[in-house]
Hints:
By secondary structure, this protein is an all-alpha fold. The protein has three domains: 9-45 and 121-232; 47-118; 241-303, no CATH class. The chain is built from twelve helices and no strands. The two termini are 36 Å apart.
Amino acid sequence: MKTSAPGGPAARKLTREGQSALDAVASGRRLSPALRTEIRFACALLPWHTFMSFAAMLLGVAFFQAEITFARKEGVFERLLALKSTYFAVLAALLLYVMLFAAVLVTRRLTHAMVSGLDGKWGSYRTLEPVLRALSACGSPDRVDDLPRLLRASERAVRQARFRRKTLPRLSHRQRALRDHAGRVVAALRAAEAGLDTYPDLARCDLAAKLHSIAEAYVEGRLGALLPAPDLEGVEPQRTFETLRLGALAATYPALAWSAGAVGLSGDVQAQTVVVGTLIAAVLLFGRRALDALRQVASLFTR
């Protein structure tokens, strides 16, 4: 069964894959016109995101350089040099890490802010794209191995949906209810995913139906009803440990810098050891997300 989707190739591909998956595992379901329109307008912003990412990266580099210049002007590094070598290594590494983290944060926030300023549909792309990718994988038995990774991305999209839709303030009292609802939706997805080990065909059908409901509810603005009530009966919210993992990664850099200084490494060897160790820690803590981020950074220099 073919479906037509206006817009660019990315929008047509997402729509076609989503509908093909529904045709394969959930007979009778169709992508609504509202969802197709949302996909079309959201995917139209992809070229702008690439351009804005490069522009924001340049601004991030300039911001980091401004931080270094300010620290030198205020004599921060000279004061650190007056300390013992161990304390100097720890404090200098911590200072540089904080400045680099601030520059990366500014780059990331600035990129999304600039693209969202062009069109508010960018938040829809960041939410719908992983959900529809997972939905398309449900339509093919050969892609079952890809489902765990795609479902993790969908879970993150579900948790961030209330922020990306921008229908309520971040400090609203409604945020807590939406956060708990998102946790229950994630738990329901994981319960359906567990069925892949027992009845894979039925589990793929169940996952496709749930992912389709999430996408349609998001487009309609029903952030507190991403899944029907019967699908959430008796389901406890699934908690996330994102903050703990970010804290662990934040502590890795100064810890490695201190360790490298303690064993007598210095100069380029110490710097390379700390950088490589931090990258390994990022991969261990965040898995494919860290690798995908590195690929996105590298793609900015290869295009």
